[in-house]
Amino acid sequence: MTDRISSTGSDKEIHRFVTREQIDFLHNYFLEHKNRLTLLELREVLVVLGLQYTDEQFRTLWLQINTDHDEYCQWDEFLSYLILGFQDDDPLAVKQSLDPPIAGELYLKLSRQVYNIVKVDFCPMVYYDGSISWAQGRWITTSREGVINYWTEDWKPSLSARSVPSNLKRSKTWVLDTAPLPDISMLCVAGLETELRFYDVVASSFTLKLVIERLPHSVCALAYRFNRHESSKLLTGDYVGRVRMFVFYPDRKLTSSNESQKTVTRISLLEVLQGKYPPVECIEYGSVLPDMVRSIQFVNSLESFIACAEENPLTSTRKRTQPMQTCSMVIRSLVPSNATMTKFYVPRGVTCFAFEASNELLVSGGPDCELRLWDIHRPNKPSVVLMGHTSSIKFVFIQDAGEKIYSFDEKKIVKVWDVRNRVLLQTFSQLCTVLGKGVPACAYYNERDREIVVASNKLFVTACCPEIALDRTDGESHTKAVSVLLFNDLYQLVVSCGFDSFIIVWDHRVNRKMTVITQAHTQTRNGVLEPVEITAGCFDEKQQLLLTGGRNGSLKIWNISGRTCIRTLQIDDDCEVTALFWTSNRILAMGWNHCVVEFSAIADDDEYPRGLRWRKLHSDDILCAAVSDAIPGAMATCSYAGELVFWMLETGQPYRRYDATNPRTRIPIPFRDGPATKPRKIAPRLSVFQASMDRLQQRRLSRIVMPSGLEQMRRLSIQSLLFLASRPMLAGYGTLLGSLDNGTVQIWCHHPDGGYMGQFHGIHMAGDRIIVMATDKANKYLFTGTALGYIKTWYIENCWIPDEDKFHVNKPALRVLFPFLLHDVIPGRAKRSARAQPKPWLLNSYQAHQTCLTGLVYLDTTGLLLSCSSDRTVRLWTLGGRYIGLLGSPVNWQTLSAVVPPSEDYHFRVPPDLQRNFVFESVLLLDLFPVCNLEQRRERQ
């Protein structure tokens, strides 16, 4: 997780600078000093190697290496620091995916069918000029009874027909395989009747046109290849392992006029081989396999075909040596004169296979439940054997140029494998519950949409690692809502946590994932281990440890350098943690337990392992809290009922209590705690962010305007609290901001002689509210994030202080100092809503996300603002509201500096999901590009 680039230059990175001989020298130096060095000794030996640091740089380096937080640097600590550095520089380490390969839902496309589906295929659209469009076409489903259905791209019925024996001696058939012939508008059907039936499929017609009969054995496998620059070819494999290829020449005319007038053309295989039917030629390859051909495919890159056969279960060859075994899979050239074949021997045979031409990777699966990876140039032994299935493998396909393999077995279980690391990535078993038991299933991989289609008595579709539509979105940072956003000053890295129970460490300057911790919080329910949402987080005072809180009341302390959990705590059962603070070797946690729980940060000195509970002064869940760094330290907490309580941080005693609905009236603090409240109900309650999203959805459906009288009687709760750290704890100074759920922001003085000082309106749309707030270190700017995804920047440097009347700057002069102020030429709703307010001054307003904001972090050194939302994204903005990029997006941006803001010629963009608002609403155009003049805005419009 550690990123040494943040604190020192890349040329001073120890793992990048030292050689192997220098590492041996360091090891011997540590051995001479009993495997531990002091701060000065480590600095001296690094100077000998040529690494010189400033005092601040070396202090940061020492904190990164010294994970034990003592006065010595152990050799193990130093070696771990080097190893983590090499891991961070590994380009393969950043490709870890957050979503499982099959993460989407199953979509039911076809409900219960009368006849079970045994084959699914897609017939693309072929135009008159020979061009092929896979974006248009029709789906084809086939049953053993010969029922063939055509469907549109969105699975609407298009054509239904039935294939019957051409000789009419029996009314029923048994279909073994089908293959669409798009370029000649035909469908080939192979059945037990030892004939190939070709149907003319044009518009809504399904007419039998050609029958190749008198085949020696029934054809059980078909493969078709067509190209506008060559003749179409159809490969067939029969019950005895013989392979033939039919070449079609539709432009050739028949020699007899009587034959051309027939409705159905019947021709025997012998006549085709003798060239008596010019439109079709046949090439015989002979018996390439010892038993029934289960699958056959063209290999265009090799001008060959691959065919496989499954061993006859009545003749076991398990104890035979390879020379005595029968061939299970072959690669044969399409050229008849080239009789060389590459043979593969697999116990019990091969049922299915897949070939990747880019790296010549061949994957086979069979009844022995093992997946084999082959090098086609070394067929004697598979290069990798992957085990994990418990039934015969029926379908295999490869994705992303051989990076992933998907295998489907008889039990309708899909397994996804990582080829590079040779590990199982996912086992997808939801198909077992939705498809009928005991009914065989078939599968088809739609490469264009990256979807797998599985059918038996029903048909389902699910996405397999879907690609990101970059014209509509920049992607996602998490798989679920992002709830925690932090910035580590020591490592200069961004940490985000979400409802997916992921902890992700980002290098925001280059859009790189440094570390991904999955299932950070877990719980066992009904015997199943499931992840728990992360709802709160903070760092320790040295920025070396990370503390996270879950929705089940659990707390975990993480070692940032070691990337491990070193301690687990619990405030209560099924109690969401809403706020965490780490101050003076104490951990303060609070949430739905109505009170503050204190833990010792040092496990050995913890007198209260289950936590020390402070006085209970809240009658409802604690929604938010804030800690002041001023002397003396103070903490403010607010509950869902609107109760605001000020605490002395050193003693844990309350000294002021207010009601957010009536802020000018103090609530007395009882001398003793009241009676215990009723126990919590078993029914789970929605999280704060989930409740916000549900309210927004209800608002979009209907809007009920409450009477003004009832609105005033409604109790208000504070959604977010924020201390202004640069201001002293003195009477008359506004030091605490609290955002109410009606859109206003209250200003409080947390001095014992202070109290409520005023409020201002912070939203410009009805039904919106401020969810999160943030400031810079000097408390010049206030950033507010709303439930509708808007970010507003306010100038508050000289607001709510005793001498604020002496400071006066007119707006033109202020606009020179801050060029990103809103202009008066196009006043939007945000501008009009703040026009009547004398303070604070609204600098800009823009929509940053489409859903509720959950976190804001401002970086003073570079002037960047990071925002996270329930839409699963973490985004970067400039102070003026210019969009830089999205963390985790495949769209990278120019490398950002660690000390200066982006320049004016930086390549700023507009979020693709906000393109529509950018085009049609001038207020958003103004807010996203606030430095443009009026003429530039008119040109864009």
TrEMBL record:
Gene3D superfamilies (alphabetical): YVTN repeat-like/Quinoprotein amine dehydrogenase (2.130.10.10)
Extent of the signal sequence: none
Lineage, uppermost ranks: Eukaryota, Metazoa, Ecdysozoa, Arthropoda, Hexapoda
Keywords: Repeat, WD repeat
WD repeat locations: 350-384, 386-427, 475-516, 539-568, 846-879
Protein name: WD repeat-containing protein on Y chromosome
Protein's organism: Anopheles farauti
